[in-house]
Amino acid sequence: MGVLEDHPDATNVRVTFHPQIWHHGCAVTSDDTETYLVSLKQALTLDGELVPDDTDGSDQLARGGDAPDIARNWSGLFYVTIDELVNETEIEAGNEHTPR
Questions:
Q1: Is the pLDDT of residue 98 over 60?
Q2: Which is deepest, 23, 61, 67, 99, by most CB within 10 Å?
């Protein structure tokens, strides 16, 4: 059952898109990060665990409809991290901070 076992009320995850730019021949993370919410189901592996940060699984969270335009249209290197779990009640109340 994975993460849902420990956090049964979680409905979404807050993720951060980290675009990377080339600087002196090296890829470095830009300061123009974007943080947004995605459905928890999109962020789970087949085993019910959260997809690991900076993997193909987490990178897919930058391509979905919940991602901001900059993430969906970014043509360079990037990575995505999962910041925290949130539930629908907290989103509606504007208090979305639930440690993962």
A1: no
A2: 61
Average pLDDT score over the chain: 89
Rounded distance, CA 23 to CA 29, Å?
10
Task: Please give the biggest Cα pair distance in the chain.
Answer: 46
What is the phi/psi pair of residue 57, to 5°?
Answer: -65, -45
* Three-state secondary structure call for residue 90: helix
Q: Are 92 and 1 in contact (CB under 8 A)?
A: no
How many Cα atoms occupy the beta-carbon half-sphere of 81 within 13 Å?
10
Per the listing, tokens 């049964």 go with 8
Residue of higher predicted confidence among 40 and 100: 40
Which of 41, 39, 40, 36 lies closest to 17 in space, CA to CA?
36
Judge contact between 77 and 53, C-beta under 8 A: no
In three-state secondary structure terms, 91 is helix
